[in-house]
Amino acid sequence: MTDSGLEVRIGLEIHVPLKTEQKLFCDCPTDYYETKEPNVNVCPVCTGMPGSKPYPINQKALDSAVVIAQLLECEIVRKKIYVKRKHYDYPDLPSGYQRTSEPLGENGRLKEVGIWELHMEEDPGRYDLSTGRVDYNRSGVPLVEIVTAPDMNSPEEARSFLKELMNLLRYTDSIIDVGGVLRADVNISLEGGSRVEIKNINSIRGAYKAIKYEIIRQNNMWKRGSEVRQETREFNEKSMITMPLRIKETTEDYRYIPDPDIPPILFREEFIHSIELPETPQTIRKRFIKEYGIPEKYAKILTRDKELSDFFQEVSVLEVNPKTAASWISREVLRQLNYRGINLSDSKLKPGMLVELINLVKEKTITEETGKKLLERVIDSGESPERVVEEESMGRVSRVDVLGDVVDKVIGNNPGPVEACRSGKKEAINYLMGQVMKEMKHRADADVVIKLLRNRIR
Question: How do the domains of the chain map onto residue ranges?
Fold first, then answer.
């Protein structure tokens, strides 16, 4: 709801490139995201040369699309599915049309959002508006497009859905997971008004910002008595606003016709049943709880991100307690990653390094606080925790004579907290404990320190 009490309805069209070695209708490579030189992964088919004929549809791409459709609880279409030509003129589309299949799956659901349909299409090239140049390396790469029902009512709901969807797709290992992998068109209407489509959104954050801005824009128009017209707008990532692009097209504008060079697709029952579905975050979560005995709260955190899930599994097969590993990853590792604003793969932390660190704490070679400080260092440096502790004498200090001198110093420097401690205030002894730890650079054995404090403050 807006501040004017208007209901907001949001639907999404999400385009995601599929991970295949070849393009959808030719054998050109699909590594456009690694290829710096433009227009080298091309052929007459993917550049729309006159007289060129498409190859048979890429089977791996088709298999991946069916897997994704099933994971989204879609009903797989059993009738003939035609690949159609969607006509529009744009420099990144050399043939003047885009090959787009009819729906492969329909009537699905993810979270509380309905999935209207899922279909395949070929990616266009990249048109640089500033230079007028086109790179066709991406042209013809297989895409899956997921069209949702307008079941979301706020930017937060749309953001949550996109996060859940992208996490699920990463678990399939069938998408090209690089920067800008997500391309979404957002459809927004207020209180049953005209639907506005926003294009050129390349991130979950961008989708959230675009939706938020567009709701405010349409709400302000409603307050002024202005009519919101059906149109297509673009999202400017720099200014975080939407701008008019063109009056919204209808299906008729695209002049869809079945591609005469591509036979229709018909899924046989044995093919559908032969598709092996990968583990999903939900099934992995249950397995982690059962197999490793970790708390549900950690299982939920670990399966929110495939990188974390894979990392935990790699750590757990080594010499370490899985419950302890789950706790360290879910709390300390994530804290360090979030502070830096990076993903796990962007850090230098490896499974063996974390196991070394956890075992140093477990064996009481170092304190837990030292372990946290050490993690803060090695996550950036990639150093061996064992080597750092040995070379820099970071081990736990338990000797009473050494700690006793520090305790006496802290007691002498803090008469107020000492008196408060004698009066029975528990927070006072915690303060003194903290001062000792600070003096010892968090290397002191906490059990020894607390005993010394209690014995010397009477």
Answer: 8-188+250-274, 281-391, 400-456
Task: State in Å, rounded, how far the first CA of the chain is from the last one.
Answer: 62
Rounded-to-integer distance, Cα 353 and Cα 359, Å: 10
Give the angle subtended at the CA of 164 by the CAs of 162 and 166, to the nearest 5°: 65
Residue for token pair 């949001």: 10
The single residue listed with the structure tokens 């260092």 is: 377
What is the per-residue pLDDT across 361-397, written as a single tens digit (0 to 9) for each?
898 888 888 889 889 989 999 999 888 877 766 666 5
pTM of the model: 0.81
| Residue 297 near residue 96, CB atoms below 8 Å | no
CA distance 295 to 288: 9
Bridging pattern class, strands 126-128 and 133-135: antiparallel
3-state secondary structure of 441: coil
Return the minimum-mean-pLDDT range out of 302-316, 348-362, 415-429. Answer: 415-429
The DSSP code sequence of 191-259 is TT---EEEEEE-SHHHHHHHHHHHHHHHHHHHHHTPPPPPEEEEEETTTTEEEEEEEPP-GGGGT-EE-
Average pLDDT of the chain is 89
* CA pair distance 363, 357, nearest whole angstrom: 10
The architecture CATH gives domain 400-456: Orthogonal Bundle (1.10)
**Among the ranges given (68-77, 195-204, 343-352, 446-455), the one the predictor scored with the smallest mean pLDDT:** 446-455
Residue 453, beta-bridge partner list: none
pLDDT at 169: 94
